[in-house]
């Protein structure tokens, strides 16, 4: 089998062709799906090749998920052996930040590869969320430089910084839905507040975003009527609706049971495989997160302890990383 498309390239093979090469479907089945996809009656989320294959009965939903995960896993193996050569989309150089007199970031150096899923992990209080806020310009460093596409964020005017922020979407740890707004208005909020898109164009985009996170028909419900997993999916739909260049996810599975956590990881994987959007995930879901990202950055005591392909970091012999991955009580990280 030919190597999978590297995440370094934003225009990979069509997903249907990758299903075919992986043996998930046959050529006649792909031909049927592509013919259905070109139909004027097939629009929005229903036009996604995976959903068409399910609708035609060529794949069951579990088979589709399994195929997507296998293709993603293949990408991650390829990423380990062929790291991307393009410049990172985001970078931090010697970044320091003190909060309440405590050094939270102590000379952070890191790079976020484009068109990949990067996970930032580490013990609680290690600076993960603070790092995320620096990447999007919500916090300014005491020292050091943060750049996007090589441009120093600190040197930008307030107007230019605001324009840069529109390239991002942020999924907050608790979802941060507005209790007084229904699901539809929560998802529509960033389009109404940050874009000139007219209302008649907002509606189909909101309904499509909800359908993509499997919440079609839930637009009239309010946050207090939703489960924890549904709230996270609404928040993800809101992050997706602006079609951002980079999505930052702060603990997207926090507080969820293992089944819902797994469903959110599958949803993130599905979104990435369709869009190749750069994603940065702050996560405590260790070791599970190693199965759902290309690149891992480990923060420890305000510094980057390790950074590289997820499979390479997983195999690290560093005792701090080994202890953290396996959740062991005995080791260099003192917890008791």
Topology:
Layout: H1 15-21, H2 27-37, H3 49-55, H4 61-81, E1 90-99, E2 102-112, E3 117-121, H5 128-135, E4 143-148, E5 151-152, H6 158-165, E6 168-171, H7 183-194, H8 199-212, H9 228-240, E7 246-250, H10 258-275, E8 278-282, E9 295-300, E10 303-309, H11 310-314, H12 319-326
Description of the structure:
This protein is an alpha/beta fold and 336 residues long. It has three domains: 15-81, no CATH class; 88-167 and 245-336, P-loop containing nucleotide triphosphate hydrolases (Rossmann fold, 3-Layer(aba) Sandwich); 177-243, no CATH class. It contains twelve helices and ten strands. The chain has helices spanning 15-21, 27-37, 49-55, 61-81, 128-135, 158-165, 183-194, 199-212, 228-240, 258-275, 310-314, 319-326, and strands spanning 90-99, 102-112, 117-121, 143-148, 151-152, 168-171, 246-250, 278-282, 295-300, 303-309. The strands form two sheets. A six-stranded mixed beta sheet has the order 6-7-8-3-9-10, with helices on both faces. A four-stranded antiparallel beta sheet has the order 2-1-4-5. Helix 4 crosses helix 10 (258-275). The model has no long low-confidence stretch (mean pLDDT 88).
């Amino acid at each position: 089998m030919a190597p999978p498309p590297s995440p370094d390239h934003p225009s990979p093979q069509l997903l249907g062709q990758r299903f075919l090469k992986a043996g998930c479907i046959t050529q006649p089945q792909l031909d049927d799906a592509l013919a259905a996809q070109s139909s004027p009656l097939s629009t929005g989320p229903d036009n996604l090749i995976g959903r068409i294959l399910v609708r035609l009965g060529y794949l069951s939903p579990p088979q589709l998920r399994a195929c997507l995960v296998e293709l993603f896993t293949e990408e991650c193996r390829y990423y380990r052996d062929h790291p991307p050569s393009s410049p990172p989309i985001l970078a931090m150089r010697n970044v320091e930040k003190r909060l309440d007199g405590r050094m939270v970031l102590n000379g952070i150096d890191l790079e976020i590869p484009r068109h990949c899923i990067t996970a930032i992990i580490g013990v609680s209080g290690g600076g993960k969320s603070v790092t995320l806020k620096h990447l999007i310009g919500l916090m300014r460093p005491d020292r050091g430089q943060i750049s996007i596409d090589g441009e120093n964020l600190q040197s930008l005017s307030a107007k230019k910084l605001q324009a840069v922020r529109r390239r991002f979407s942020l999924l907050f740890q608790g979802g941060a839905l507005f209790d007084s707004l229904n699901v539809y208005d929560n998802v529509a909020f960033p389009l109404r507040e940050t874009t000139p898109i007219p209302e008649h164009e907002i509606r189909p985009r909101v309904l499509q975003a909800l359908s993509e996170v499997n919440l079609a028909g839930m637009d009239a419900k309010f946050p207090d009527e939703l489960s924890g997993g549904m709230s996270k999916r609404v928040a993800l739909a809101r992050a997706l609706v602006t079609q951002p260049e980079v999505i930052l996810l702060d603990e997207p599975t926090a507080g969820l049971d293992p089944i819902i956590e797994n469903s959110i990881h599958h949803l993130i994987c599905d979104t990435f495989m369709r869009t190749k959007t750069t994603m940065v995930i702050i996560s405590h879901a260790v070791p599970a997160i190693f199965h759902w990202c290309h690149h891992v950055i480990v923060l420890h005591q305000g510094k980057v302890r390790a950074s590289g392909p997820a499979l390479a970091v997983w195999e690290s012999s560093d005792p701090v990383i080994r202890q953290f991955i396996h959740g062991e009580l005995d080791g260099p990280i003192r917890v008791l």
